[in-house]
Amino acid sequence: MLRILAIVLLFLATSPATAGAWMREKGSGYSSITISTTLSRDFSESTYLEFGVRDDLALGAEVAFYAFSNGVQSGSAMVFLRRPIGRDDRPSVYAYELGFGAGWSGDIVRPYIRGGLSWGRGYQLRRLNGWMAVDASLFIDTYYGEHLMKIDSTIGLNFNDRFAGMIQIFHAATSDISATSIAPSILFKPIKNRPELRLQIGTETQIGNTDNSAFKISFWRDF
Fold it and tell me: φ and ψ at 4, to 5 degrees?
């Protein structure tokens, strides 16, 4: 049971909005804090940070905490690097990630490594600009050798300078179980003269398990 729980915790985490295949410029960074709660009163909080060390290298970290309605408390932490693949002057951009971290439940700690591949592309819908992205990653438990595969797909559209909409589909699978969730959200800049600050408000519903739908709010900051 503990082995299964440790793996499930990885994809129950609220996925933060990341740059994906788009690299950060040297000396620039991004952070987000996301809080999520479900109808069954499960709670999660995650903090994400990445920084452009060079135009072709970003370093980052993510820490998450989970509190379930049955009293179980768990968490995870990871550090990673991201590098581009190919030229950045093409319509489609690609990048890969390598990371390592650990998940824990009580006094049980489960180290893991992660590899990821991202694709991104901008598009135009009449006079509006948008973006599409696919982020695939593989988590490998270094103790038991078990694995978790995640594929996150995103499509977003900027309505104007302050408001945007986004729909994400999260899919995760192990050798025993799988889950797919749909997460629509609205993004907006709450302070007109602070364009580096954004707020995301949305929901996440697991297909086949709508009774455990989640509400999430995320605060983003570019620096």
Answer: -65, -45
Q: Which of 83, 85, 140, 143 is nearest to 114 (CA)?
A: 140
186: which 2 tokens? 């609205």
Beta-bridge partner residues of 101? 78, 112
CA distances, 71 to each of 38, 41, 43, 197, 209 (Å): 14, 11, 11, 34, 21
What pTM was computed for the model? Answer: 0.88
Q: What is the DSSP secondary-structure string of 69-120?
A: TTS-EEEEEEEEEEEEES-SSSSEEEEEEEEEEEEEETTEEEEEEEEEEEEE
Answer for the pair 73, 51: CB distance below 8 angstroms, yes or no: no
* Cα separation, 144 vs 176, whole angstroms: 14
Low-confidence ranges of the chain (pLDDT < 70): 1-19
